[in-house]
Amino acid sequence: MTNDEIRPVYFLSDSTGITAETLGNTLLTQFPANNFDRITVPFITTAEQARTVVGTIDKLVATGPRPIVFSTAVSSDIRQAIATCQGIIVDLIGTHVGQLEEALGSPASAEPGRAHGLGNAERYQSRMAAVEYAMEHDDGQSLRALEKAQVILVAPSRCGKTPTTMYLALQHGIFAANFPLVDEDFQREGLPRPLRPFVEKCFGLSSNPLRLSQIRTERRRGSPYASLRQCGFELRSAEQLYVSHRIPYLNSATVSVEEMAATILQRMNLKH
Amino acid sequence: MTNDEIRPVYFLSDSTGITAETLGNTLLTQFPANNFDRITVPFITTAEQARTVVGTIDKLVATGPRPIVFSTAVSSDIRQAIATCQGIIVDLIGTHVGQLEEALGSPASAEPGRAHGLGNAERYQSRMAAVEYAMEHDDGQSLRALEKAQVILVAPSRCGKTPTTMYLALQHGIFAANFPLVDEDFQREGLPRPLRPFVEKCFGLSSNPLRLSQIRTERRRGSPYASLRQCGFELRSAEQLYVSHRIPYLNSATVSVEEMAATILQRMNLKH
Question: Any signal peptide, and if so, which residues (chains A, B) (predicted)?
Fold first, then answer.
């Protein structure tokens, strides 16, 4: 086959499918020349359901490129049903469970994956509380509760504060607030007053003037706010502020929220 | 060793560590009798950095239970450095890449994992736009833009609309709005007016009266709003509304946002 053909990729799971998608997609990024059509089938809880999906996939084997099947099913009857599939089966659990059983000297529980269930109820509740906190403290709203924040993201408008805050909350249960830097913050001396007691918790975001101007233009075309000159001024002023108060910062122009979150956790030494 | 001992678990990555944490934690849930102390080391980009981490882990081998090391490093020199570690090495990439190389008939790129980078810029921008949309349309704010929503989560207060909306946006790039059901919606006939043109896009959330009353009590102790009676009334009324308008729904009391999101994607046939 040529690489122009579209190869189906199935993510099969007895739970949400998140784990299968995550590792499966990581592996697929190693084969950038291929075109893939991704289908997630979550909540396969019986061998019969598994056989139905296998039937669908086997029909595709006859007519096009052999589908790739990433599976994270845990129960042995479901895994056996999936193993009969004529696609390229990549068993993401079975391969490693055996190794861990041997090393830990105890058998795996073979319960369906609960990694993305309620699991540890306390940890789950704290993640939900963090989301609520992030919603309530977005963009400098209700500054009173900054003392509860584990980290305060500081940046000019549209540098990625909101999605990064939300990601830290939802994925990692981190209480993250954010604080927008505006012109008057750059005209005054020192840190903006609400941040002064919490400088140790501040993490700055910056961007590139051109990129920031593009993003702001989508929102308010032709405004002074979106001008390259204003964006350059704000970013220079913000970086000066970060440096003079020893606030760690990163440029958000070329990294994803996931990468920003991982960097912030590491630099701020936050335990999640 | 006994299972009371705390075994260190390392997630090593040349990128964010998200993939290593996701599959690693899924595997660990199969061994519930053990106590684990989790440490993520992201952004290992040189063999020297890898050797430093290996040195830290090898010191632990001498003094306690053998650490488990989940690795998603892609480049061969980093993988070789990690392979020298005396912990229990679980190589989540290498194991499967070989299988895919053979099946696809092409070599892996061996570029560091970009699954959680900007990757597909268009897809990334659409996720960020979805987060912005979710922030702006939380809790029935600005109903005007409901026609842009791919799904509208409908539920009484505190049934999990907001975090589920945010998860759908941030992880899956789904444009999700949400609409709170209040007493006056139950007193009138039919669907709330703003939802009527969009009944096909509605998905309902329910809960258990006791659970909902507990959650509301945390927010407003002793209020009529938090009473078991009021919670029971709202949930019964909401479920009647869902059933009579054929709106699919689920009970959020015992499932996680990840499970809700996966169910909603599947039931509403949303492509992400």
Answer: none
Is the domain B6-104 a CATH 3.40.50 member?
Answer: yes
Query: Inter-chain contact A117–B23, Cβ cutoff 8 Å?
Result: no
pLDDT by 10s per residue, chain B, length 272? 445 689 999 999 988 888 899 889 889 988 888 889 999 999 999 999 999 999 999 999 988 999 999 999 888 899 999 999 999 999 998 889 889 999 988 888 867 655 666 666 777 888 889 998 988 877 766 677 888 999 999 999 999 999 999 999 998 999 999 999 999 999 888 899 999 999 999 999 999 999 999 999 988 888 899 999 999 999 999 999 999 999 999 999 989 999 999 999 999 999 76
Candidates B192, B191, B203; CA nearest to B161 is B203
Q: Give the span between the Cα atoms of A171 and A77, in whole angstroms.
A: 32
Least CB-CB distance to A26: which of B19, B103, B266?
A: B19
Of A15, A160, A258, the CB nearest to B116: A258
Every domain range in chain A assigned CATH 3.40.50: 6-104, 121-267
- Of A31, A115, A263, the closest CA to residue B113 belongs to A31
Arch. (CATH architecture) of A121-267: 3-Layer(aba) Sandwich (3.40)
Q: Which residues of B touch A113 (CB under 8 A)?
A: 26, 29
Say which residues have a Cβ less than 8 Å from residue B4's Cβ, sequence separation at least 6: B35
Please give the Cα distance from A168 to A260 (Å, whole number).
9
CA within 13 Å, CB half, A44: 29
- Which helix H or strand E contains B216, and what residues bound it? helix B209-219
Interface with A, mutate which of B25, B29, B99, B135 (most A CBs under 10 A): B29
ipTM here: 0.82
Q: How big is chain A, counted in residues?
A: 272
Contacts of B17 in chain A (CB under 8 A): 262
Helices of type H across chain A: 18-28, 47-63, 76-83, 94-104, 121-136, 161-172, 183-187, 209-219, 228-244, 257-267
d(Cα B39, Cα B208) in Å, to the nearest integer? Answer: 36
